[in-house]
Amino acid sequence: MYTEVASRRYRVLHPRPVYVIIVEAEGKVNAMAASWVSPVSEEPERIALALDKESYTRELLAKTEYFTVNVVNERHVELVWCVGTRSGRETDKISECGVRLAPAEKIPSKRLGDALGWIEARVHRVIDDIAEDVDLIIADVVAAYARSDAYNPRYGWELAKAKILLHASGRAFTTPGRLIIAKRG
Amino acid sequence: MYTEVASRRYRVLHPRPVYVIIVEAEGKVNAMAASWVSPVSEEPERIALALDKESYTRELLAKTEYFTVNVVNERHVELVWCVGTRSGRETDKISECGVRLAPAEKIPSKRLGDALGWIEARVHRVIDDIAEDVDLIIADVVAAYARSDAYNPRYGWELAKAKILLHASGRAFTTPGRLIIAKRG
To answer: B16 pLDDT band (50/70/90 cuts)?
Structure first.
């Protein structure tokens, strides 16, 4: 009934939301796709982001403490694929992938202009020794924004309107389907 | 068009998969619900789990290095709500919530008997100072298993069969809807 998963075992933990991370430093802006992102604490509000040490985003993030985590929906799938499969060191992904930028509200950074929502973050700490090629970025949530027509302050995203993009594997993405309400106790 | 999110800003990063974490130590077994879990590296394969320092799971995890991360589907929503809203210190959640246990394959621990899949993990490191009340557990993936009829070794979960449970907020859960394939480049 069960098979052992022999490789890419992280896929067992997918699908998960895929975000567009935007960082700006010294006049350069880069965007990447990331789904290895998670809230980690509520007080203070912090998130963690696993980042390839060799990535261009990491290089820029050594020159600024600020970045945005942009929540996207099914309409952004080609943009996500584009920024997720190129290196910003070799191409200008902002123009090549058609990334619309807008200024962040409370940090000196850019955000995705037509995102569903975004978090403005400031690096709190970098944990550089959990794996040879990964830095785990722990960041403070400075501010967060969501599209007024798709986010309810009491309940969070209105799933049917938000259609948040989740990454399964490779080119396969999905988005939330039906709402399920827990009844018990 | 956008509203600032003033509280519980982590909700902007939901819905995300919700897992059942099972830990066994000194003859006691506990189950909890967690969605602040993420893969963090591929080489070696490691995951991160944000855990309340005061939780019973944390207490047991001080007595063993092993735990399982169980992937659940829409049929488990009441079980997830049950184990997510009680403390194992006060009640035996395994019996009260109807958690079917089975032995893990490669670690001395239990897993959810009717999970969609699970990861067997061993604590690599505890980062205890990212927030006053949270320990970030970094763990090695020892093994992973998935239901043969719902997981494709090449592509991962077959979403329509797996119906993996995602947590939105409060009692609201969801599950993946349609498959979206990126075409570009």
So the answer is: very high
Identify the band that residue A184 occupies on the pLDDT scale cut at 50, 70 and 90: low
Residue listed under structure tokens 């830095």 = A135
CATH topology for B10-174 is Pnp Oxidase; Chain A (2.30.110)
- Considering the entire predicted model, what is its pTM? 0.97
CA–CA gap between residue A112 and residue A107 (Å, rounded):
14
Contact A4 B133 (CB under 8 A): no
ipTM above 0.90, yes or no: yes
Cα–Cα distance for residue pair B121/A70, rounded to 1 Å: 30
Cα A30 from Cα A147, distance rounded (Å): 23
Q: Is the Cβ of A60 closer than 8 Å to some Cβ of chain B?
A: no
Q: Which residues on neighbouring strands pair with residue B69, listed in sequence order?
A: B21, B119
Point out the residue among B45, B141, B184 whose CB comes nearest to the CB of A78.
B184
At the second CATH level, the architecture of A14-174 is Roll (2.30)
Cβ-contact B160, B152 below 8 angstroms = no
User: Residue A67 and residue A82: Cα distance in Å, rounded?
Assistant: 19
Q: Quick one: pLDDT at residue A135?
A: 98
Distance of CA B176 to the CA centre of its chain: 17
**What are B16's strand-pairing partners?**
B167
CA nearest A147: which of A119, A120, A116, A175? A116
Chain segment A131-153, per-residue pLDDT in tens: 999 999 999 999 999 999 999 99
